[in-house]
Amino acid sequence: MRRVPLLACLCALSLAPVRAGGPSSSTGQLRGPSSPAAGSPIEQQGQERLVRLEQWVKAVARHAPGEDDDALREVAAWPNTALKLLWIDANVLTQMIRGVNANRFTVRPEGQRAGTQIRYSSTQTRRLRVLACAAGGALVQGECMAIGAGSELAPELRQLAVLVRTATLRGDDNYILRRGALLHADVAILAPRSMEAPGDVGRSSGGLERFRMEISDGQEVNLHQSAVHWEIARMLLDFVRPRGVDHADPGHDEMVRKWYRATAAWMQLREDHDRLHLDRARAIFPADPDILFLSACQHETYAGVPIQTAVRSAILPTGVTLDVGSERTELREAEGLFRRLLEIRSDHAEARLRYGRVLGSLGKHAEAAGELRRAVADLTDRQLLYYAELFLGSEEEALGNRDAARVAYEQAAEIAPMAQSPLLALSQLARRHADRRGALRAIERLFALSVMERTEHDDPWWWYYVVQGRDANDLLEAMEQPFLMERLQ
Amino acid sequence: MRRLWFATVLVLLASRGDAQQSPAFSSKVEAVRVDVLVTENGQAVHGLGPADFEVLDNGVPQEVTLVSFDQIPLNVILALDMSDSVAGERLEQLRGAGSGLLAALAKDDQAALVTFSHAVQLGAKLTTDVASVEAALSAAVSTGQTALVDGTYAGIMVGESDAGRGLLIVFSDGVDTSSWLRADAVIDAAKRADVVVYGVSVVSRLKPEFLREITSFTGGRLFEIEKRANLSATFLGILDEFRHRYLVSYTPRGVAKDGWHKLDVGVKNRRATIKARPGYLAGS
After folding, report:
1. pLDDT in tens, A263-318
2. What is the pTM of this model?
3. How far is residue A136 CA from its own chain's centroid?
4. Hey, of B122, B158, B180, which one would you mutate to test binding to chain A, going by the most A CBs within 10 A of its CB?
5. How far, CA to CA in Å, does B202 sit from each of A100, A320, B58, B116, B175?
6. Does the CB of A456 have a partner CB in chain B at under 8 Å?
7. Tally of helices (H runs) and strands (E runs) in chain B
8. Low-confidence ranges of chain B (pLDDT < 70)
9. d(Cα A407, Cα A413) in Å, to the nearest integer?
């Protein structure tokens, strides 16, 4: 069964329970976003969190990108409540890496305007600082020397500090950030079952709330809380400092760009839809053609029948909404993004093909036909050319150009001889023009396609909504390649 | 709506030995035929002749020249959803219902099977050999998405491939998710065809708008059944209802040759309930 996960959101994304509130940091309390386990002292919870954070740092440094290794399996097994806390603590750790003496920490979840202040006890703050010294490769720097960080670290973390230092000396001081993002993306990609976090959907447990609705054949089959691996990965990359820059500026970092492009392509290939992911990518890379393309494709996909049908059929708990607009809203978003992309890259034939289809879906048939004719002229990829001819046929038909429509459909049928859509289109076109014999001839061609020889891939139309992610695996591999070395062994 | 050459109709009638209804028509005259269900108090009304019917074509009274009832063999086309969601118990029910319907066909009736998931397939073309249709039904497996619109169109075209009296039964437990054809284009094709479409849909939050429209435009009916409902009884009920319909023919006079023709069918001197297609697309 082909299942398509679709991100849903609790309207009020909230970190409210984390807010320290009344007691000051001097009380030594670290408050988790969820209710403390019964009978578990808050101080003890804090200790557990820092132990988890330390395990995380080590797992990040041990993980081989793209591999389903022990480090990945360890992190994949963590419960979502722990991951939500990790999102906070890793965020704070990263702030400390950038400034070891920092003692005021604010975190802000995606989609929220206001940040939330996080407070730790002095003991916890000290431990965090020591960890930051290791994870930042700064053991020999003044602040870390002053607190004797090196003497408090296990050998594995001291080895990590050396690796980070080496990377920093080569000009990149984002070791934990980049590798952390790679690790959490790999968990989502290689251990997808771990994304299904158990929990009562509809009752906020605090912290980041993400839900995923799985749909099959246009109908909801499952709604569950989603583990926040992608959120952790994006948060880490927000702190990336490109070479030669002394502040976070992920929008000028090529690895971050490649990461978003590859992971977004993977999501679309796997129909694992997450609007926040590309929204963030576009915020960071507003004029990047690849990001614009995938964003536009996502909106086009959201406007498609399978997603729109699923949204209409979904039974969601109070307060939970799906990040999907109406068909028209999504089409207009897609139209705007494709247009912007084509202004930047007028030679992007695949974007022009999709732009033409979107225009046609919006009823702008003449404009659509123009774009599609140009796409037909420019495209060399046979599968994309098939789409262009098929869509052009539809637009010519809408414009009353029967002969041109027939020619385009026949071209599509020639490109993909086992595809049913052009034959259905030809039959319907003939029937519409009172050519009953022509309609029957075309449908006979469809019926003549051997049942035994037909496969899932016969008609590229069936794969239209995923084909834009076809090179996802290559992109992931290329993006991960530089990180295969210099790991903790 | 397809316009039959009357020569074709006469051949069909002759095969049933109905000599008294064999008026001499010019072979160039086109006729319109309309499947009509006449009921009183829920019971089918029998024994009506041409003089009992009133037909208004775009408001213009027409002379009904031919009425047949339970005389012309049926062409029963099953268009069945074989998507993922039909797997398991539902598939077995569907096979059972299909088999029951095939067993209830008369000797001269023909049957055909179209299955659709995302792919549309002709399981068996129109044939009196119902065993071959049943074999195709047994071999059908459920997989993939639902191309309800494409599958329905294919079913209509199977009906169009033969001049016989076409009944298309479309079953789906979901809504369309992967068709290429647009629903309005297929409804347009249905308006041009003689096939009567009956729809069977499983109740869900999504309304089966496409099936509702296409059954309405062809004079058929939509049955929305519960998940556990007896599908066999529904299929057999459809066949029984269809057998009790009149096939009313007339040669249009005083109306335009093209475009949408609104039809009003009535029965004189009776307070009967009439079910017939609301119109047809001429020039088809």
Report:
1. 999 999 999 999 999 999 999 999 999 999 999 999 999 999 989 988 888 888 88
2. 0.87
3. 27
4. B180
5. 63, 27, 36, 16, 10
6. yes
7. 7, 16
8. 1-29, 70, 284
9. 10
